[in-house]
Amino acid sequence: MTGVWVAVVVASLGCYALKLAGVSLPASVLERDDVQRVAAMLPVAMLAALVAVELFDSAGSLGLDLRLLAAVAAGVVALILRQSFLVVIIVAAVTTAVLRALT
Amino acid sequence: MGEESRGQESRSAIRRDAAGIAAYAAAFGASFGAVSVASGLNVWQTMVLSLVMFSGASQFALVGVIGSGGAGLAAVPTALLLGVRNAFYGVPLTRILGRRSLSGPRRLVTAQLVIDETTAMAVGHDEPESQRYAFWTTGVLLFILWNAGTLVGALGGSAIGEPETLGLDAMIPAAFLALLWPRLRTVEGRVVAAGGALVATALIPLVPAGVPVLAAAPIAVVAGLLPRRPGRAGRTGREAAR
């Protein structure tokens, strides 16, 4: 439990420090093209990795919960249909809940 | 019709947009609260995240890594790397908000409201006064409703015995995917996303929880530093950063 508190406080203050740095640093630092491109790509790589880990990490070994996969697939369908963020995550939750109730 | 009434019209339009975004944030915050408690954090820890971290993707990432068995500290760098983009919003916002919002103690308050939605609302207007009004209205409303939503979701979530039966665990990958989706429009985005997913998946059985996600970061660095094709240089990067 203490470990979680440390993570919560350190990460929260760190994220705040990043925002504060953004409105404090001289623009010339943040406006460099290569720095901007790396910053733009970071969320793409991290979010894709997070999706993969949520799907394929089964207590430290490779595994796949088909009900979670179905939930994400349903989410993709909602995204293709240009549904809002909220609809996407609710569709995913309901899909998993229904599949768990049935299986 | 003078300048003044037009200004008021745009102010009420801004308030309407901000209220829409904030209402949405309340519902999204409630799902975060429920997921956070389902991942093993308590209500207080969940509230500190929404009050202090106040950045949706980073919050979901932190509880996602902790929930999947990562030691607490392994979750920190992932949340921070996802928060890096907020620093870059400082570039347009410093110009928009001007010295008054950014001098002395006010800078500390302003900084906390620098997130995707407030930046998008501010840069979406032309007049400096509308831009500032959009930033502050959206920021204050969103902060209040995001936290109110989180509290309701966390209390509701902790009242539920087994969150899995409600499919709350499926909300995390779906949330990440929805956040990722708009960035997959470019080839570069798709390649980086595929690379990140592959590296993370390959490392799952080899390294402790939390590390596979971090290992995806160098892919973003390499992709960002690769030479651009002439003609498109800089432009794609800057657009994607918004």
Automatic annotation (TrEMBL), chain A:
The chain crosses the membrane at residues 6-26, 38-56, 68-99. Keywords: Membrane, Transmembrane, Transmembrane helix. This is Branched-subunit amino acid transport protein. Pfam families: AzlD (PF05437).
From TrEMBL, chain B:
The chain crosses the membrane at residues 21-41, 73-91, 133-154, 196-226. It is found in: Cell membrane. Pfam families: AzlC. GO terms for biological process: L-valine transmembrane transport. One of its GO terms (cellular component) is plasma membrane. It comes from the Bacteria. Keywords: Cell membrane, Membrane, Transmembrane, Transmembrane helix, Transport. It is a multi-pass membrane protein. Belongs to the AzlC family. This is Putative branched-subunit amino acid permease.
